[in-house]
C-alpha cells in the first residue's frame, strides 16, 4: 500500500480536515440536496410482485403494523385534540398556518440565495480548476510552491510520508487521470466496463457549470471533455440536470429531469450496444446470409441517455441512480478529483458505506430487544440522514495483517 | 382522522410544496449538517462483546471480507499506478495536492459564508416567529388575513377541507402548543414521560439563536422558555451546541460539545431522578428508619445534561442522539412548529423513516442475487445519504380501510 494512502490505526484523535471522512456530511457544497419527484405506485401492474401485499415478509408485516399503529395513534391524537378546541383557538391555529406560509416564502428565498452563493464559489474555484487542468494535461509545469504545498498535505495525512524533491518539474501530463479518478469512485467503478475504459482514456476534464439564472428551470451541467478518439465525434458530452421551478415542501429543489448529449458514435464503435451475428435463411431462395443485430448493453455511456422521469417511467431506482451519479460528480469527484485519483477519497467512501450496514444490523437487534421493555424509557429516533457514526471498528481491523 | 391531516391516496401527482415529504432533503436550512467527532474503538475494554471479532456473525464476516477485498484491490490498484509513474509525473500529482489545499480553503470560506447566510435568514424569520408566539400565547388576535391564508394552505393540502369563517378572532391562546408539537416528533415523543409532560405544559416558546461571530467556537443555542411552574425556578433552559473551530475534511463543521442550563429543581420535583424509600436498621440501636434514595431516571430534561464528548466518553450512540435532537429542533421543529402541532410533519417523518427500512430489506435481497452475476454489468452505488426514495407503497396502503 502506498504511503500516501494512509489508513488510520484507530488511535483516539480529534477530527481534523485530514482524518474526517469525505462523506461525513451529505452535502459537500452546502446546498441541500435536491429531492427526487414522488412516484406513486398505486397504478403499477399487478405482475410486479414486490408490490403485492401477499409477498410481504414477516418482518415487513410487523413493521407495517407498527407504522399503521403509530400513525393512527399519533396523527389521530393530535387531530382529535385540534377538533376539540373552541372556535377562537381553532382560528389561532389556522392563523399559524397562514404565518407558516410567509415563513416558507422566506425559506424559499433563502434556498435561492444558497444557490447563488454556490454559483459564486464555483466562479472563485474556476481559476484553480483551470490550473489543475493545465497540470494534468502537461500544458503547464508544476511550481516548486505547489509541490511543496502538496508534500505538506501528504505529510499531514501520513507523518512517515517521504516528500518529493520540490524543485520545479518539467511539464508532465498525468496519463489517464480522469479515468483513474472515476474508477476510484465505488459506484462508477462498477458501471465502467473495460470497453468504456478505452474510450475514457481520452477524457481530459470534467467541468461543472450552472444554468443561467434566467433559464426557465434552474439546474447544473456536467461537461465531459474528450480529446479526439476512435469512438465518437463529439469533443464534449454534457449531462444537464434540471430542477423544478417550484421548490419542495422543505424549500429544497426537486429534480425535474436530466438531458444528455447525443453521442455520435463512429462506425461499429457504439459502446452502449452489443452486436450479434445471426444466420438468416431466405424462405424463397433458401440462401443464408449473416445479419448483425444490435442490442443494448451496460456501459458508462448510457449515462448520457438518462431515464425518463415519472409519471411516464416508474423505475424509481434507475432514476435515483442517475441523479446520484450526477450529485456525486458535482459534489465529490469534480471538487476533489486528486483525492479520487490517489484513492484517498475511495478509502473514506468504502468505510462509510459499509459501516452503515453494520450499524443497521446492530440497530435491528436492539429494536428487537427493546420491544419487550417499557416503551416510555426507550428512545427511538428517526434514522439519521446526516453524518454517519464516525469511523468504526472496521477500519481498525481491515488494515491489520 | 381530521380533514386537515390528509394522507395522499397514491395518485400520480407532481411534487409540490404540499405533497413533498418534510424530511426529503437532509438539511432544511441549506448548511451541511455538522459531523460528529470520530470515536476510535481500539482502546475499548475487552468486555464490550459487540466489538469482539469472535462475535461477528456470518453476514458481518462476509461483508468484512468484501470490504477488505475491495479496499486492497482498489486502493492497491491506484497506489501501484502512482508509484509506477515517472518522477516528473509524480511531481504533477504532488502539485495537484497543493492546488487542492487552495481549493479546500475556498470551500471552507464558502461554508463560513453559508453559516452567515443562515444567520441572516434567521434574523429575517424572527418577526414571524414573534408573531407566531403572540398568537400562541393569546397576546395578539389572529387577523382575518392570517386565517384566510391558513385556510388556503389547508385547502391546498386537502381540497375537501372546510375553511373556518375568516372574520377576525378574539385573542385565544393555544393550550399546550409546544408540548403537543414536541410529542408529534417521533424521537422526542418517546423520551417525554408523563411526568415530563406536566412540566412541559409550561413551555411557552422554543427559540433558536447563533453564537456571536466573534465567539471562540461557532455554534447555536436552543432556548426553551417556560412560564412559572411547580417544577423548577428557571424561566429559560438553554442547550448550546458548539462546533470545532476547524471545519472537517469536506469543509463541514464538526460538533465539539454541547452545554445545558443547570436546572434549579424545586424540592422533590427533579424529574430526572426517581426516589426509593428504603428501610435502614441501625446496627447499634437496632432501630429502623426510612431513607430516601435518589437514582437517575429517563426524562426529557436529561437533554440539559448532555453526554461528555470523546475521548472521555465513548458512548457514541448517546452523543449522536443528543446532536440529532438538537438538529431536529433547529431544522424541523422550530421552523415548522405548526406542522408538528397539527401532525402534518409527523405524517411525513414516519413515512420517511419506515420506507427507508423497506428499501434496505430490498437492497439486501438484490445484493444477494447480484453476487452471482457478472459484476461488470451491475451497479452498486454507495448508500444514498440524501433524499429518500420518495413516498413508497406503504403510504398507499396504510390509509386504506
Could you describe the 3D structure shown?
The structure is a homodimer of 401-residue chains. Chain A contains ten helices and six strands, in the order H-H-H-H-H-H-E-E-E-E-E-E-H-H-H-H. The first copy, chain A, is an alpha+beta fold. Chain A folds into two domains: 275 residues, Arylsulfatase, C-terminal domain (2-Layer Sandwich), CATH 3.30.1120.90; 39 residues, no CATH class. Chain A has a four-stranded antiparallel β-sheet with strand order 1-2-3-4. A two-stranded antiparallel ribbon of chain A has the order 5-6. The longest helix of chain A has 51 residues. The radius of gyration of chain A is 27 Å and the shape is flat. The two termini of chain A are 12 Å apart. In chain A, 39% of the residues are buried. The N terminus and C terminus of chain A are likely disordered. Chains A and B meet through helix 1, helix 2, helix 3, helix 5 and helix 7 of A and helix 1, helix 2, helix 3, helix 5 and helix 7 of B. Chains A, B: Pfam families: NAP. Chains A, B: One of its GO terms (biological process) is nucleosome assembly.
Secondary-structure map with pairings?
The structure is a homodimer of 401-residue chains.
Chain A: H1 58-83, H2 87-137, H3 144-157, H4 177-183, H5 186-189, H6 194-200, E1 203-210, E2 219-226, E3 236-243, E4 255-260, E5 273-281, E6 288-296, H7 316-333, H8 337-342, H9 344-370, H10 393-398
Antiparallel strand pairs in A: 1-2, 2-3, 3-4, 5-6
Short description:
Helices cover 41% and strands 12% of the residues of chain A.
